[in-house]
Known about the structure:
By secondary structure, the protein is α+β, with helices and mostly antiparallel strands. It folds into 2 domains: 343 residues, PPM-type phosphatase domain (Phosphatase 2c, domain 1, 4-Layer Sandwich); 122 residues, no CATH class. Helix content is 41%, strand content 15%.
Amino acid sequence: MENNSLRITSSSVSDRGLSEKRPENEDSFLELGPSGIYAVADGVGGAQAGEVASQMAVEILAEAFNNLGVGSDAETVMRTAFERANAAIFHMAQDLPQLSNMATTVVALHLAENIATIGHVGDSRLYRVDADGEMHRETADHSVVAEEVRSGRMTEEQAASHPSRNIISRALGAEETVQPDFRTIMLEPGSAFLICSDGITRHVEDGEINGVLNFGGSPADICDYLKRLCFERGAEDNLTAVVIKVARSDRSKAATVDGPSEEQTVAGVREPSRTQPATDTDESVLELDTQPFNSPHDSSLLPVVPALPISESVGSKDLDPASETAELERARSQAADFEMFGEKIKGVTANAVERRPPGRVMPALVSLIIGSLIGLGIYHYLLRPEPSAVQNPSLSEMRSGSIPLTAFEDNRRNVDADPSAYVLRVGPIAQDAEDFYLLGRGFLLAGKYPESNAAFVEARRRLPEADPVNAKVLASDIAVGLAVTNDTTIRSMLETELRGTADRPVNPSPRR
């Protein structure tokens, strides 16, 4: 991609790693050269929940920058995308019990003209090597031990072996609100960026990353090297990396085609499981029930926000400690010949990276989106217990603390009960974002997808005027509705699910 006087190339890699405890890849990444946006998200909450959370984050981020207006401020757009992703993930986790621990880290980079905008939440990282070869870690981990190191209550050496080293203190979707960190820097020719999940940094030291980014290979070479290095050292976690290089544009070479940077990739990379799916007794299931970190008073570990646990065991590094200079030389020599490196680590088979085309949503996400649209309506409308025959007058006036919220929820149930009737009754008089969202929901359940999409688009346009009580819920519900109406695969699965739901008997005791 040509960015004014700069030429930007990029490449990416993602793999589930070698651990049998992690049969699915919960990482997702974003590599959209024409839009100048790159990102990595590391999902939390178990295989299905983690991959859904990370995929939602990168897709909302991609939509924001694909529709970036002329003169828009990149940091403002990125902040809004983070907020919307946080709301969508949080509300879906609240609505679906099987996703109750769902959350994700995210780190994003936007390049435009000579400006680089960086934002992140969690412990996924962004490294930058400048034109002089100096490396800068542009993100500060949002984790319990990292905050203790920054406060001076713990050393880097203590943090590396601390039992709570994998507990993050911020993540998208973990709380109703989130506080991302942002920064803006000048972009210069000769710079290189690495965006990665902790599956990379748990095996590759900062000094080695410095050497890798400086050794002169292409972004694809660097990605290949990092994956090989992690595999050599055990690849105990999902690993994802996006590498971007910035060079001075040579416009005389008009026929030059930048390789992977011209691809528009929104990927939640999933590879076939090497083992059978985890059973209820498998250790990976414990990720859903891990207790939050409670700091003992004598260690002064006081996270700023409630800690979000990630149950992981970190193995020791296979290489003996060495000086930074020796590590850099070793990195350069190993990267010089990948075939020799491949012989050195023979027996390790690197799975092919599977890219998902833009807009393609994997079956697990499809099922969950369908569940979010119809499952909740069926549960709340059909499966809720009958009210007690004895009415308490003193409680009847406490039916709701919010009249707009109660009216919205009642109308949503009315839509699910008889979509066609609701469309006929409300269609001609729809006025605000809530009306058009409910209208779109009715058209969707009635199978009228073009009308549904138009109503959701109008609801999104009117969202700034919506009642604040409903604004966050509307934003996430509208995003889900647009995802369904824009994808024919999801629509066909929705129709199948709706037909199947109508034929299935109602269970008075919903499963959790």
